[in-house]
Amino acid sequence: MELRMRPRNEGYQRPQTYEVITSSRAQMMNYRDYLGNTVDHFNIPAEHAKLSVTMSALVEMTMMPTLPDTIDPGAWQILDRLIAQGDYWEMVHPSPFAKPTDLLVQLANEFELQRRDDPLTLLKELNSQLHHAIAYVKDKTKVDSPIDDALKTREGVCQDYAHIMIALVRRLGIPCRYVSGYLFHRDEDESTEGSSHAWIEALLPELGWVGFDPTNNVLARERHIRVAIGRDYADVPPTRGVYKGDVETELAVAVKVRQVDDPAPEEELLEPVFQTMLADPEEREDGLDHQQQQQQQQ
Questions:
Q1: Pairwise CA distance, residues 180 & 132, whole Å
Q2: Torsion, CA 214, CA 141, CA 171, CA 116, rounded to 10
Q3: Run of H or E residues at 58
Q4: In this structure, what DSSP letter does residue 298 have?
Q5: How far apart are the C-alpha atoms of 38 and 49, rounded to whole Å?
Q6: In Å, what is the CA distance from 105 to each residue of 65, 144, 191?
Q7: How does 169-183 read in b/e, with b if 16+ C-beta sit within 10 Å?
Q8: Over the stretch 37-93, which tens digit does the pLDDT of each residue have?
Q9: Domains and CATH numbers, the chain
Q10: pTM for the model
C-alpha cells in the first residue's frame, strides 16, 4: 500500500510532526517521487479482515504575501519563453484526467476563454466562472470519472473542478498542476468537510505557482495544506495498493483539520465517509488480486 498523506515541507508550509499508525503491524518505508511528493509504503502479508490507517500531523502555516490585483500583460510573452525551454512540458500538455473534449471546448467558448488582459486577472475570472458554472454535489461522480461526467450534468466535486480548470488553463498555454491536500474549512466553503480536498496551481511570472480553488471560489492560501502535486489525480491518490482475497471491500474515510488552539477532545470520534474505490475489472474476475485506490477527493 502506498500513502500520499504527508504534508509537503516547502514555502510557507512547514510540517512539525508526522505519524502514521496501521491497525496491523507494518514496517513503514518511504521515498520521494519525481515531483517531490513523499510516498510512505508498507506491506501486510498476514491474513486480515480490516485495515485502518491513521495519519496525524502538526503543520505550521505562515502568512503568504498578498497577491497583486494584476500583473504586467507582458507576462504572456514571458510564459511562452519559459515553456519553450521545455521545463514545464508535463504541466502544459493533456494528462489522463485533464484532457480536451468536445464538452470542454463548449465550456471554453461559453466563457469566451482566450488570452487577454494579464494571466493573473484571467485566471481569477476563470476560477469564479467555473465555480458558478458547476454545482457542487457530494459524491456526484466517481474516483475515476472523466471530466465529461461533470460537464454533462454541470455537477461534481472538487476533483472535477480541478481537472476541468487544469484542462482549460493548459489550453491558454499556462503550466498548471493538480494539488491534493486538506482544507481548514469555514462555514462559507462549499466543499465537504471530512474528506481530502483538491485544487490547482498555475505558474505565473514573478509570482511562481499560484493556487486557485474553484470549488470554493477562493485563492489557495494559508487554509490549504498541500500534500502532493501532479499532472492530475492519477499521480497523487492518497492511497493506492493491491490486496489478495475473494471478498468485497468498502472504504471509509474521515479527515479533520483544526487549529492548535482548538485541541481534539480526548474521546473524539470522526464520522467516516464511505467512498468509491477504483478496481480493475480484469483483476476482479479471478477473485484474487484487486487493485484499489483512495477515495474521491471531495
A1: 22
A2: -30
A3: strand 53-61
A4: -
A5: 28
A6: 34, 21, 26
A7: bbbbebbbbbbbbbb
A8: 999 999 999 888 888 999 999 999 999 999 999 999 999 999 999 999 888 999 999
A9: 75-235 (3.10.620.30)
A10: 0.90
